[in-house]
Amino acid sequence: MRTRTEREMYDLIISFAEQDERIRGVLLNGSRVNPNIKKDIFQDYDIVYLVTDVESFKDEKYILSHFGEVMIMQKPEDKIWPPSEGDGRYIYLMQFIDGNRIDMTITNINKVEEQIEDSLTKVLLDKDNIIPELPPANEGSYLETKPTKKLYEDCCNEFIWGLGSHIPKTIWRKELPLLKTLIDIVLRQPLIQMFKWSIGIKTNYKCSIGKGGKHLENLLEPELWNEYKNTYVDYEYDNIWESLFVFYELFVKTARYVGETYDFKFPEEECERALEFLKHVRGLPKDAESIF
Fold first, then answer.
1. Rounded to a whole number, what is the distance in angstroms from the first to the last CA of the chain?
2. Which of 33, 238, 243, 247 is 20 to 30 A removed from 75 (C-alpha atoms)?
3. How much is the pTM?
4. How many whole angstroms separate alpha carbon 273 and alpha carbon 227?
5. Which strand (E) or helix (H) includes residue 264?
6. 153 exposed, middle or buried (CB, 10 Å; 0-12, 13-18, 19+)?
7. Phi then psi dihedrals of residue 121, to 5 deg
8. Cα 143 from Cα 209, distance rounded (Å)
9. SS3 (DSSP) at 278
10. Angle between helices 60-67 and 6-18 (to 10 degrees)
11. CA angle at residue 19 from 16 to 22, to 5 degrees?
């Protein structure tokens, strides 16, 4: 089997629009227009077709007859789990047999202004010359902004509450699925947010950490990245316990730096109390009848 080339894929995308009068414009967004992303063989084609009638494009046979054989497909607007956004768009997520993937959004031409709000957008076709001229694609829509005092305090509170309340009881009970979920929500998310601000300070808020923090390895100092990797551990409880203290050290170190930069007060005492309680719970026997 041969993977269709980039040129062939673009020809397919454009020819589909050229031969259908209902399609008035084509936009490309995502990684393929991001000047800061290194191209690779797995990049999707994130396409927006601006049309006169969305409803008429819900015929998947019409779509697939042009784009080829799919290995698997999703139509998010037809799903009840997870629920669709219900914003008038219709979406085809198509993974083709040849390895290419197209994420196709069909939306009304009247919503063109909404579509071009994304700074990673390039016009591929404009039949009526109605799409406003766009600046060169950039990551502007995805860059972090400076924290307010309230945002900083809330982020600290979320981490400390998780460390001192959610996590201790869950790990003592050995509720592994819940524990793993909570770690990613109440510890990892606040830590990544603090990383965003820390990196923003050092780069003047001109770098994005990417979806899910995928660029953190390149943006964190090597020693911080090596520490952060130790927060990803297996199902062994001793290893999970050790990772919790790595989370703590990383968060405190990063939050102090951000706080000092913006003259925000880091809640030292509250954080220390949460840590001491966590340590105490680690020493509790499995059959403990009282916390203290």
1. 66
2. 33
3. 0.93
4. 23
5. none
6. middle
7. -135, 135
8. 8
9. helix
10. 140
11. 90
Distance (Å) of CA 227 to CA 94, 129, 207, 224, 242:
37, 52, 21, 5, 12
How would you classify the pairing of strands 121-126 and 70-74? unpaired
Q: What share of the chain is helix, strand, coil (3-state, %, to 5)?
A: 50, 15, 35
Q: Which domains, ranges and CATH numbers included, belong to the chain?
A: 6-140 (3.30.460.10), 143-282 (1.20.120.330)
- Residue 81 in tokens: 């789990």
Q: Name the strands in the sheet holding 121-126, side by side, starting at the edge strand that comes first in the sequence.
A: 70-74, 90-96, 101-108, 45-51, 23-29, 121-126
Rounded (10°) CA dihedral 262, 162, 193, 259: 10
Q: Pick out the chain residues at pLDDT < 50.
A: none
3-state DSSP assignment of residue 80? strand
ω into residue 82 within 30 of 0, thus cis? yes
Q: What is the pLDDT of residue 85?
A: 87
Please give the pLDDT value at position 27. 98
Judge contact between 266 and 194, C-beta under 8 A: no
